[in-house]
């Protein structure tokens, strides 16, 4: 009886440890380092939320990182067009204004790529600059299609 209890205790400890050691995708930042600093809803013109852009900043590397994660309404789990882009604004851009592009990173980098869960991660260094965050999710169902998008003005400057 003691032996069975010892084995069961060992199995429970092993299983419990694996749950503790294996973070969820959101806890791991979807491949982004640092801390989440903002979230933006990717909406259709009718207000349906197709996704959420998660923006992270890693102070040890000075990089911003973003992912565009689909909701169930936006086809989470179904290969559809999911897109995310980070733009570094030109010098002198102030928060809240239109961001004129200096450089950018995007995922996917070419057309015809569909993701099941999320686009990204994309990383950009923007020390002393503002950034803009862009996300798109497009669904097609037979002859109809719908699209959700988000584009920020210049934000997270510095």
Secondary structure elements and their pairing?
Elements: H1 2-21, E1 35-43, E2 49-58, E3 63-70, E4 81-89, E5 101-107, E6 118-125, E7 131-141, E8 144-151
Antiparallel strand pairs: 1-2, 2-3, 3-6, 4-5, 4-7, 7-8
Strand order of the largest sheet: 1-2-3-6
Unreliably modeled segments: 1-27
Q: What is the number of strand segments?
A: 8
**H/E element string?**
HEEEEEEEE
Largest beta-sheet characterization: 4 strands, antiparallel
Mean pLDDT: 84
N- to C-terminal distance = 64 Å
β content, as a range? 35-45%
Shape: globular
Domain count, please report it: 1
Q: What is the oligomeric state here?
A: single chain
Instruction: Report helical residue fraction.
Output: 10-25%
Structural class: mainly beta
Count of alpha/pi helices: 1
Characterization of the model:
This protein has 158 residues and is mainly beta. The protein has one domain. Helices cover 13% and strands 44% of the residues. It has one helix at residues 2-21; strands at residues 35-43, 49-58, 63-70, 81-89, 101-107, 118-125, 131-141, 144-151. It has a 4-stranded antiparallel sheet, with no helix packed on it. The longest helix has 20 residues, at 2-21. The protein is globular, with a radius of gyration of 20 Å. It starts with a helix and ends in a 7-residue tail after the last strand. Mean pLDDT is 84; it is low at 1-27.
